Amino acid sequence: MPLFLQRRRLITALLTLAIMASVSGLALGLFKPTETVITEIAPGVFFRKVETEPKFIGCNQGWIVFEDFVLVIEASFPNQAAELIKEIRKTTDKPIKYVFDTHWHGDHADGNPVLIADGAAAIASEQSREQFLNKGVASFDKQKTEKPEEYGKLKYGIPSLYFPKKMVIEDSKQRVELIHFGHGHTKGDAVAWMPQHGILFTGDSCVNGAFNYTGEGDTASWIAVLTEMAKLPIKRVCPGHGEMSDATLVTTQRRYFVELRQAIQEAINAKMSLDEIKKSLDLPWYKDWASVDVKERTENIEHVYKELTQK
C-alpha cells in the first residue's frame, strides 16, 4: 500500500473517533428506514420523514401553517402528494397555497399536479427552470408509461413561480426564506430556511445517511454551498432523505465531499488508475453514517474522478 494511503488511513481513523464523540445521535446511528414519521417540530411546522425500506416511496416532506394558508415543502411522487394532503387535513383546514420544489427530480416534484389540482402554486429556483421544462417533462412522460395507474391521468406540474436567489414568504405567524446558494446536487437546488425557529429544509443538498447522487452535481460548488449553509444558526435540519438532525449533519455532508475529493486527488497524484482508486478508497467513518462502504458509491467515485481529471 502506498505510504500516503497508510498515513491517510491513520488520520481518517483518528478523525472518525473524534466525529463519533462529537456528532449527536440525531445525525448518526438512529435511522428507522421502515417507518414514516410525522413530527411537529415547531408550532405549525411539520416534518414527514418517509420510509425507504423495504420500498423507496419518495423524499421527505414538510408543511408550514401560516395565518391563512399552508406552504408544502416537496411534492414527492404523486401518491405521496395525495398522502400528504390527507395528513395536512388532520392539522388544519387552511388552503394549500404553495408547494416548494427544492429541485426537479421526480421523487421531489412529480407530485406537483396533485397539489396544483388542490389549489397550490408550485415554486422553484430560477436556475431549475430549464431542468423542469426539459428533464422534468421527459422523466414525467416516461413515468406515465411505466406507472400508468399513478401517473396516467396527470399533466406535469411545471412551477409557475421562480426566484433568482431568494424568496420570502411571511406573515405575523411564520417566515420562510427560500434560498438558492448555488450548484450542489443539481444546478437549481434551493432550501427552505425558517430563521425564527432555526429550521432548515435542505432537499438533497444535504441528506442523512442516504445515497448522495452526484450525477448532476458539481462537488466543488456543492462544498461551497454547504459551507454557506453551515453559517446559518441552524437548530434542526430536515433533510431530503433520512432522519431529522441538527447542524452537525451539514458538517458531515460537507466532510464527505471534501474527503472524497482529497482522497481521489491524492490517488491521482500517485498515478493510480480509476480501477485502482475504486479498490483502495477508504473512508471508514462513512459506513457508520451511510451504512455502506464508501467503495460501493462507485458512481460518486467516477464522477469526482472525472471532475478532477476532466476525462
Average pLDDT confidence is: 91
- Poorly predicted runs are 3-30
Q: Which CATH C-level class of the domain at 31-246 is it?
A: Alpha Beta
| Reported CATH architecture of the domain at 31-246 | 4-Layer Sandwich
**Strands of the largest sheet, in order across it?**
1-2-3-4-5-6-7
Please work out how many helical segments DSSP would assign.
11
Strand content: 15-25%
Task: State the helical fraction.
Answer: 25-40%
Could you say which overall geometry the principal axes of the C-alpha atoms support?
globular
How does this structure look, described?
- The chain has 311 residues and is α/β, with parallel strands linked by helices.
- It has a domain at 31-246: Ribonuclease Z/Hydroxyacylglutathione hydrolase-like (Metallo-beta-lactamase, Chain A, 4-Layer Sandwich), CATH 3.60.15.
- Helix content is 40%, strand content 18%.
- It is built from 11 helices and 12 strands.
- It has helices spanning 3-22, 78-89, 106-109, 112-117, 129-146, 148-151, 219-229, 248-269, 274-280, 284-290, 298-309; strands at 37-42, 45-49, 61-65, 70-73, 96-100, 121-125, 161-163, 166-170, 175-179, 191-194, 199-203, 236-239.
- The strands form 2 sheets. A 7-stranded mixed beta sheet has the order 1-2-3-4-5-6-7. A 5-stranded mixed beta sheet has the order 8-9-10-11-12, with no helix packed on it.
- Strand 8 (166-170) and strand 9 form a beta hairpin.
- The two termini are 26 Å apart.
- Residues 3-30 have low confidence and may be disordered.
